[in-house]
Amino acid sequence: MFCLRSWLSILLLINAAPVYVALFIAGTFALRKPCVYCSILLCVLIFTILDFSGDWFEARWQPTVETVSETLSSLVSGNATIRDAALETASAAVSVINGTSGALASAAVEGVRRRIGGGNASLGTTWSAFEWLRGVTDKVSLRIPCVDVTLRFQLVKIMADRDVLSGDVKPSNYAISLFDLQAGEPWTYQGKCSIDLEVKNSTKSITLNTHELKIHSVEVFSEAGKTASSVKASKTEYDTKNQRCTFSFDQPLPESPKAVLTIAFEGTMNNHMAGFYRSAYKPTVEASKGVAKDGESHYMFSTQFESSDARRAFPCFDEPNLKATFDFEIEIPDDLVALSNMPESETKKSKDGHKVVSFERTPLMSTYLLAWAFGDFEYIEEFTRRKYNGKNLPVRVYTTRGLKEQGRLALESAHQVVDYFSEIFRIDYPLPKIDLLAVHSFSHGAMENWGLITYRTTAVLFDEYASDQKYRNRVVYVVAHELAHQWFGNLVTMDWWNELWLNEGFATWVGWYAVDHLHPDWDVWGQFVTEGMQMAFQLDSLRTSHPIEVPVRNALEVDQIFDHISYLKGSSVIRMLASYLGTDTFLQGVSDYLKAHTYGNATTNDLWSALSKASGQDVATFMDPWIKKIGFPVVTIAEEPGQISVKQTRFLSSGDVKPEEDETVWWIPLNIKTGPDATDAQRNPLTTKEDTYCDIDTSFYKPNANQTGFYRTNLPPQRLIELSKSLDKLSVQDKIGLVGDAKSMAVSGLGTTAAVLSFMEGFASETNYLVWSEVLSSLGIARQIFASDPQVAEGLRNFTLKLVTAATDKVGWEFSQQDDYLTGQSRALLLSTAGLMGHEGVVKEAQRRFQAFVDGDKKAIHPSLRSAVFKISVKNGGEAAYRAVQKEYFTTEAVDGKEITLHSMGQVQSPDLAKDYLTFGFSGKVAIQDIHSVGVSLANNSKVRDTLWEYLKENWPMLREMLGGNMVVLERAMRMCLMHFASFEVLEDVENFFKDKDTTGYDRGLAVATDTIRSNAQYKERDLELVREWLSAHGYMK
Ligand SMILES: [Zn+2]
């Protein structure tokens, strides 16, 4: 136990102002017998909430963890348990007091303020704060002894930060029945939802979540003691803004372990890709009679509930830790197929030509994981090789009629991955079946609904003969990612949305881990470093980034954090941790964590505890800065004979980090590859701002071996040149890392573009696709930024062309049976780059093949070269080629055909054609889910980038209306279109344009875009002349 008097002594010892001491004494008195947590919170409140000014209240002493530790050690010396607990507690408190725990702490305090309904404190509000805190701590089951101090303390803090439904009632089962579905305008359906509840506190009202639902009637049946009663709600009030609905009753509902809330309601099968929604498609074979039709369009229906759209389909307590079981039934036309999380339990005839399909009860799970779908479906089936409860599990891929064969690749991967995850997590897949469904309209890539995973078509369908090979990689990965969630996310769910990253970061890492297991020849970790990590770095080097773990006050705020920080930085730090602990140890910890929280909810701290136990290391301590602090470090290296000195600072792409933004000390696994065979890796992590590493063979060394650490390295310029001479000692991941780091040093001003270009010249004979991919995308960024200067742009074009020519000529046009996946990808990338940079031979051949293709010879272009050939043809072929690709957009039968043609059309070279393309993009002929591709392809093209921005401004109301039905779509489109600009004028224009607009729902994306433009513009100003000089001195410019 921890004595309260110690706190008082601390306050006295640190010379706290008398007012603080007085308040503390008053507070402890008011709280009667406060526990240790209350007393900590009391200190925090006194120091942080009360906004005093004046001498009396001036803090006389700035506590630091060290000084408080010292004081505490002397107080409690001799008892190790108490000392440790006290130190932990004190550091938590001190970090809050000092305001260094950043967003989380201040938001928590903000949360407290809002709860007590006031800003500046008076005694009255302070009193209510204490009352409220006492209430909260009462509800939390405090576990003594003190080992849990930090954890519990955080629990209290986080609860203060959530705007959640009242805890008066708790759902345990939902019985949902949907009927009278209208297969046409107004696309409504009727529903009945009966929710089994425990009424924990007698109440006169029940509030739950609804969105765009019409409530017809509400009734509660409850059993309290021996009496059973039924009451109808006397009033229903909608809170549209908060997506809640309150049912009031004339009599209080008695406390009861068993009550049933029955709601009759009406909903809409919308076309916003959220809730229960419809997807239009054109069937490729004759459709069943019962399918919904509207002119040429046929419809299928499915759900998308994450993060907070279950409430759009049925009334529910829509929070991830309010887990319940679900019974679901739906009335559909006789000849269609209905699916849900669980297997069908029975089918009954209903009204004319209709049937009611019911499903088995689900396990305990969160509302966002419920799913159903129906339509003109068919399927292919496989079985797992392992046995589950004595049986091989059926795994199916469902599609609308005519497409099922394209599900083979996904099916083949899925059943193997289910077995693989069951083995590495040491927990069997828990449901009796797994279905994968291709959905024609889909806002994200896929959704992990338990037992019924939904995908956009390009993430699950693949045609061996007609698809671009790069989609093979995508399909296998997305299948694995969603399957990983069946354990990590579904079986064990994050307690609240602020820990979304844990779900997504882990599924991303383990998804790639499974792909690596199935396809070791794809070198997916190289791919991860060039695609995933670089993207995460890019976003996280902006001032407007956010810590991985962000406060999410209510579920409505969560959509915007489904971003690269949650997925890609999240998975990058998981990869760093897994590689440091060793993958086997890491997976052992993950398995323990899953087993300990099965069918429940857990937090990041729970995972760290399990990993600490498995590894014998204090995982939380070294991971916390990575999770809770914004940004990441750059490690700057200086060489001395036989040793190097290293220094970590926060990295910003604008290069102007201020001291107050650079206070974090990250735990950094330096992993320096050195020695004659480049095999020794120094594992000692860097845990201070600066340090020296001895025994480094300075004839060759490379920090961050295999790029497993999530940080950039700033090497001395001469070292970069040395390394470019020993590329053979470096792994693919090392090379990618060096290129990426050098490029971003140039962008930030810590290095120069000249150094990067010199370094890149060494890659002309490179053969690896992934290294090429990093080199060319880095060069692409330079071309984009310096595009406004025609001379420099031309010089960079010449440089790129010269760099790729030999490799392009070598790889050639023809695919052979022996080519592996990566060679095919190299071919597509090199031909595309060379052609777009003006390689005469490539342009000619591309145009020849394109003409043959247009004339009807579909074999003239290999499926994986469609993108390259279409782009080169549009760029060089004027309006005729553009129209031909547009025609292909309408007629293509390939599942990836629409995405490929959309990206190609952006190569138009005149503002008129760009406008034409935009008009086409927003004409309703391009699916909402794909419109961002139109914008991005134009944003990538410096010839017409300005036309895009003019169009966006002129047509804003239409655009807002069209994309704003689903904020995910609008946010993505705005961010991706705008972040390619590199001038202060456009920046000002963008800021002015949005100044008086309501940007709720896409403000984060907008901030990312403007911050990126600013850093691009600064980079251009700084380096333009240097680049010109270098290009001219090296003969790339006339
Ligand atoms: Zn995911």
UniProtKB/TrEMBL annotation:
Keywords: Aminopeptidase, Hydrolase, Membrane, Metal-binding, Metalloprotease, Protease, Transmembrane, Transmembrane helix, Zinc. Residues 186-369 form the Aminopeptidase N-like N-terminal domain. Residues 700-1014 form the ERAP1-like C-terminal domain. Signal peptide: none annotated. The record marks Y567 as: Transition state stabilizer. This is Aminopeptidase. The chain crosses the membrane at residues 6-29. Residues 410-626 form the Peptidase M1 membrane alanine aminopeptidase domain. Zn(2+) binds at H481, H485, E504.
